[in-house]
Amino acid sequence: MPIRVTVWGENVHEQKNKAVAENYPKGMHGQIAALIGEDKNLVPTTVTLQDAEHGMTVEKLANTDVLVWWGHAAHGEVKDEIVERVVQRVWEGMGLIVLHSGHHSKVFKRLMGTPANLHWREAGERERIWVVNPGHPIARGLGPYFELENEEMYGEPFSVPEPLETIFVSWFQGGEVFRSGLTYRRGAGNIFYFRPGHETYPTYHDANVGKVLRNAVNWAYNPDNHAHLLKAPNTPVDKAIEHIVERGAKLTHHPK
Amino acid sequence: MPIRVTVWGENVHEQKNKAVAENYPKGMHGQIAALIGEDKNLVPTTVTLQDAEHGMTVEKLANTDVLVWWGHAAHGEVKDEIVERVVQRVWEGMGLIVLHSGHHSKVFKRLMGTPANLHWREAGERERIWVVNPGHPIARGLGPYFELENEEMYGEPFSVPEPLETIFVSWFQGGEVFRSGLTYRRGAGNIFYFRPGHETYPTYHDANVGKVLRNAVNWAYNPDNHAHLLKAPNTPVDKAIEHIVERGAKLTHHPK
Amino acid sequence: MPIRVTVWGENVHEQKNKAVAENYPKGMHGQIAALIGEDKNLVPTTVTLQDAEHGMTVEKLANTDVLVWWGHAAHGEVKDEIVERVVQRVWEGMGLIVLHSGHHSKVFKRLMGTPANLHWREAGERERIWVVNPGHPIARGLGPYFELENEEMYGEPFSVPEPLETIFVSWFQGGEVFRSGLTYRRGAGNIFYFRPGHETYPTYHDANVGKVLRNAVNWAYNPDNHAHLLKAPNTPVDKAIEHIVERGAKLTHHPK
Amino acid sequence: MPIRVTVWGENVHEQKNKAVAENYPKGMHGQIAALIGEDKNLVPTTVTLQDAEHGMTVEKLANTDVLVWWGHAAHGEVKDEIVERVVQRVWEGMGLIVLHSGHHSKVFKRLMGTPANLHWREAGERERIWVVNPGHPIARGLGPYFELENEEMYGEPFSVPEPLETIFVSWFQGGEVFRSGLTYRRGAGNIFYFRPGHETYPTYHDANVGKVLRNAVNWAYNPDNHAHLLKAPNTPVDKAIEHIVERGAKLTHHPK
After folding, report:
1. Which single residue of B55, C108, D31, D174 has CA 20 to 30 Å from C130?
2. Chains B and D: how many Cβ contacts under 8 Å?
3. Taking residues B12-39, what's their average pLDDT?
4. Interface residues of chain D, partner chain A, Cβ below 8 Å
5. What confidence tens digit (pLDDT) does each residue in C205-243 have?
6. Could you say which of B162, B165, B175 has the minimum Cβ distance to residue C171?
7. Which Gene3D superfamilies match (chains A, B, C, D) (predicted)?
8. B134 and D185: CB-CB below 8 Å?
């Protein structure tokens, strides 16, 4: 069954910065969607911050299997109620791929429960991304490492929770390292953080980056809806699986 | 060095429900503090929801090494700005022990990034808490299991992130199970969730529960402050550890 | 592409115990294979302890994508060299599903690095298996729990490493709990331990058990071979990715 | 209470290689013990491969709280029965710190259940060890990173299980990265793998390395003995916690 992928683009620097516009004439979201669409089972569409409800309408989210998120300059403009809506869909089982500066997006920080800080440098230096977990489906088809000749540096400590698994670790020319590919589950939703993707460099034209994105979407896909996780139901005494007799003091005289 | 423990109590049902008041004439927070104080290296104090700033002033938090949180009826009354203040202190390294219905506190849900739901029943049934990780410091001095003759049931799925380690799993008379002791780290802060503690039963008079609380406080204690994790600093090119030359297009003309 | 599944059966109690023979006239391996074969993309075959090289020839392993292992009475009869061969195939990427008393198989203990002990009772009591991680692919299609009216009890502590994820937790009528579904990766091989399956009860005729087995095989499947993980190669100085000059004292005068 | 630390040294290259002998006139074990002894609560002693039973007698192990292991050239000479004895003490609760080339020791591979391979280069290049988990007790007192001007390179993938937590990640001058500090628990024993320590360089004269070793020993210490984890006891029906009646067919006519 085809997987419905929505690429969320902030679409700000594409409009303001010549280098970004030249790298990504279709917008970063457009190029990210193009990379994902190389797998014919993946059906990408794009939305942007500027769309009504930032493109994250109830209907659009209901029809999204995996959401890919790139933002940088305008995290603060994303409305809190939309953030909650996205987060709830993740808990229900929608996959989420967070890219690069999206580490500071409200959605990602909300799901991590941490500041997701790091230190950084914009110098166009070399990044070498090592596969530390070659058997993981997100690393499928990659060599031992791949390089991006010009990238922004992100350095440790990256204040995120210990992941389920660490897939990639980056080496930077200026002397830093970074855990560049991390997996999480929140509720029924699979989450993958992938570091590269600074807007002034042609990262989303790189073949290995495309491979990682397609692998990640396939990995994150969960065909089922687990909306039941959004509730905390009472199981009354007379519905207990094993027979029990009520005892002791109660707050609730009748089961809620 | 003595560990400064602050016990946060909601102090609502103690005032409204006769059974709770009889169980806990000093308030639940008072009795929890008494259990913790049995270890002479632990110095507990108590604050409640009704205190100014819910007792969570900047100064009080600065002087708290480990915070213990019990709440149930009034999670919604805790102000969001106080929640953020508490969460930031956890990221800096303050330990946090979340008890029972505190699973639905704003502080805990904020740090987990999940709804922290479960299903439940108030019937005074038997709970048997099994130690599944006997080598963990939080299980020190316990037998293979201990029992609470009357407890509220919490049943799986408990929608929290996969923990660093699972310490306890509960068996309930009515047929359910629950992961009753879970560890996390968020930023530099150690977090322990411990299930038992329904207010209409005498749980915080149980010797094993006291042992777990004292173990947990000692485990969660982190003597250092890691406020640096709250920042995302730039490392300018001329301060790179390894010599590099700036290349490519930039968003920032001067390092921020 | 079809997934080649090999079911390894010990085939001892089927020959000696009337109840086992009646439950499993085709052998336990035969019935486990039948359950797996209900997914038409899975192609199960069976081998047994009594086969030459216990059925685990180099060729058979090379043609196995996922191995399912049931053993109990004769763990000690499995030759160490065969155990090493199986373990190496797991490291290369073969999936492994270990069932019930297979927790004490040489293969499982070798991969865990722990004794994999537990406590137990054979009394035909009720087991209720709760799904604690409903979003995991191994839990797909199950309800909140399922029951086996007669099973052997396994009780905690189960001395295995903290898993990647806990999928199931069992409730037992006699008062115990057990982490009944646990995932691991060793090298490139995905491993799932699944608790139920005592030979004197009809567990492998249960529809939910079948569903779990098929889900687990699909989850564990890794289409790639990572035999490179069995080597520790030298990267000589003149092949370093970044130019470096050899310095300091050496053990090795010439790169190995 | 003082912590009894045993440093196990292979003591082979100290006798054969001039550079090693000059770096470590007291043997590597002697210098590692000296670093550990700077914490007055730690009481280090040393044993070597050449001692009777490799110094790992039943008595010595019974009197060891934390074992530190350095080996390289002679892993194969360590007798299998001694390896099993050490591994069982770890399961009981003895801490274990494995250093550098000890990744290929029988003891470490036995406890990991993986080949623990990597790729390597002996070129005296610069290693920079980044703290990725600053709140962990093993990182206490360190800056954001520390450097070793000359070290052997170890490169990913390091085929070990996903750790409980990743503490350090190394940057190498020649372009590689490595997860240099990893924690595990096996049975009740805490295990820390720490990468640096090639014998031809003065690594164990470095102040930060000393700090890590002392932190790691304090972290790994477990005052309790959990020998019960080495057994898999039967709990007979008439000793079940909750009353149950035996049902169904049995393998065992009388409880074992």
Report:
1. C108
2. 45
3. 96
4. 128, 130-134, 144, 155-158, 162, 164-166, 169-172, 175-177, 179
5. 999 999 999 999 999 999 999 999 999 999 999 999 999
6. B175
7. 3.40.50.880
8. no
- Counting one residue from chain A and one from chain C, the pairs whose CB atoms sit within 8 A come to 45
- Give the CATH H-level superfamily of domain A3-113+178-239: Class I glutamine amidotransferase (GATase) domain (3.40.50.880)
Contact, B63 vs B69, CB < 8 A? no
CB spacing of C130 vs B156 below 8 angstroms: yes
Helix axes D27-37, D207-220, angle to 10 degrees: 70
- Best to test chain C binding among D121, D191, D198 (most C CBs inside 10 Å): D121
Task: State how far the Cα of A232 lies from the Cα of C156, in Å rounded to an integer.
Answer: 27
Distance CA B52, CA B79 (A): 11
Signed CA dihedral, A158, B231, D138, D154: sign only: positive
CA distance D18 to chain B (A): 32
pLDDT of C253 higher than 80: no
Q: Rounded CA gap, C52 and C48, in Å?
A: 9
Determine, for residues C135 and A224 on separate chains, whether the beta-carbon distance falls below 8 Å: yes
Question: CB neighbours of C28 closer than 8 A, spacing ≥ 6?
Answer: C9, C10, C11, C14, C20, C70, C197, C199, C204
pLDDT tens, B227-251?
Answer: 999 999 999 999 999 999 999 998 8
Domain covering C3-112+180-239 assigned CATH 3.30.390.60 in the classification:
no
Instruction: For domain B3-231, give the CATH number.
Output: 3.40.50.880
Tokens found for residue C56:
């685990």
In CATH, D3-116+181-239 is 3.30.390.50: no
Tokens for B2, please give them.
């003595």
Given a cut of 50, whether residue D249 has pLDDT beyond it is: yes
Mutate which of A13, A72, A114 to test chain B, going by most B C-beta atoms within 10 A? A114
Q: Which residue has the tokens 């390089």?
A: A147
Vertex A36: Cα angle to A102 and A182 (nearest 5): 45
Q: Note if the bond before C157 is cis, omega within 30 degrees.
A: yes
Report how far residue B93's alpha carbon sits from residue B70's, in angstroms, rounded to the nearest whole number.
20
What 3-state class would DSSP assign to C200?
coil
Annotate D177-199 with DSSP letters as a single string: EEEEEEEEEETTEEEEEE----T
pLDDT band at D251 (very low <50, low <70, confident <90, very high): confident
What confidence tier does A17 reach under pLDDT thresholds 50, 70, 90?
very high
pLDDT tens string D226-236: 999 999 999 99
